[in-house]
Amino acid sequence: MIKVSGLEKEFKIMTHKSGMVGATKNLFSRKHTTVKAVADVNFEIQRGECVGYLGPNGAGKSTTIKMLTGILVPTRGSISVNGITPFENRKENAKQIGVVFGQRTQLWWDLPPIESFDLLGKIYKVPSSKLKKNIDNFIDILDLEKFLHTPVRKLSLGQKMRCELAAALLHDPEILYLDEPTIGLDVMAKDSIRQFLKKINEEDKVTILLTTHDLDDVESLCKRVMVIDNGKLIHDDSIASLKGRFGNYKNLELDLENDEEVHLPVGCELVRRDGKKIMVEFNTDIIKAPELITNLAGKHSLIDLSVHERPIEEVIKRIYQTEV
Ligand SMILES: Nc1ncnc2c1ncn2[C@@H]1O[C@H](COP(=O)(O)OP(=O)(O)OP(=O)(O)O)[C@@H](O)[C@H]1O
Ligand SMILES: [Mg+2]
């Protein structure tokens, strides 16, 4: 459905010299450097998939999404979305995609959401009976009723995001691109957005590409994760394989009775220490949890302990550290 090959995007940035002398020089020289925001990215996404797109700040995620939507023209490489090349045929492509940029709005700031929905319906030429049906459906499942007639500028972030999602889906697109849809939302608001996305992905088979810094979004929605760093794809596989990629690590959290020095057995590493609270990371291929706990309990007086899966954030941090 989506096929991306050898995709690259370079930005030319003017280099400015600072100070008075520099400012004069800037007038005469047109020096620029090239930033490669996306470098030789290849992937395919099948109909009905929900794919997480992760990476640190500046990795190239938004640039990729902008090329997929047709807003940006690639420097090299090709994109085909159902046979359409987005930047050559932006209008045709717009009919099959919905886009939500968490940092921007496609709703009119001074209008209530319901009026934005009507306008967007007209722009996308959605037949009026179909539009009404879709709006009613989104009012129902996204619980928009209470603020449908309030100007968008007066809505909370979570309310606004629910309206953004409805707005992006009014024309029944097959594909939904989401660039940080849960940014700045509280736990409850995040959860309702996730449930909604899960529903449209599973029931309506909307294909989703989701960019986020919130790994809980990915863990609750996506079977597949792509990780980009410095413009290059460094992982494209299941979440399980992302977690398993650096051995089987777990974390042990300990509350000690005393503030003494702790000697850890082989296969363990101290992650952090805050007085009597310590966090240890251990490799389960070398030492199993019961063995580690017995070892430590023999040497120290323990008040409390808990064992956790290594959070996916740490797995990704490791990929960044080892592969860049
Ligand atoms: N219009 C632009 N002009 C120049 N450089 C740009 C432009 N847009 C993006 N870049 C650069 O391209 C790189 C990738 O940016 P991009 O916005 O794709 O990152 P990102 O992965 O979305 O990061 P974030 O998590 O912070 O949103 C960065 O180095 C950025 O500074
Ligand atoms: Mg971004």
Keywords:
Rossmann fold; ABC_transporter-like_ATP-bd; binds magnesium ion; alpha/beta; 11 helices; globular; binds adenosine-5'-triphosphate; ATP binding; Alpha-Beta Plaits; 324 residues; six-stranded mixed sheet
Description:
This protein has 324 residues and is an alpha/beta fold. Helices cover 36% and strands 30% of the residues. The chain folds into 2 domains: 47-243, Rossmann fold; 247-323, 2-Layer Sandwich (Alpha-Beta Plaits). The strands form 3 sheets. The protein has a 6-stranded mixed β-sheet, sandwiched between helices. A 4-stranded antiparallel β-sheet has the order 11-12-10-13, covered by helices on one side. Strands 2-1-4 form a 3-stranded antiparallel β-sheet. The radius of gyration is 24 Å and the shape is globular. The chain starts with a strand and ends with a helix. Residues 11, 13, 35, 37, 55, 57-63 line the site of adenosine-5'-triphosphate.
What secondary-structure arrangement, pairings included, does this model have?
Layout: E1 2-14, H1 19-28, E2 32-45, E3 50-54, H2 61-69, E4 76-81, H3 90-96, E5 97-101, H4 113-123, H5 128-141, H6 157-169, E6 175-179, H7 187-202, E7 207-211, H8 215-221, E8 224-229, E9 232-238, H9 239-244, E10 249-256, E11 268-274, E12 277-283, H10 289-299, E13 302-309, H11 312-323
Parallel strand pairs: 3-7, 3-8, 5-6, 6-7
Antiparallel strand pairs: 1-2, 1-4, 8-9, 10-12, 10-13, 11-12
Organism: Halobacteriovorax marinus
Domain ABC transporter: 22-255
InterPro entries: AAA+_ATPase (IPR003593), ABC_transporter-like_ATP-bd (IPR003439), ABC_transporter_ATP-binding (IPR050763), P-loop_NTPase (IPR027417)
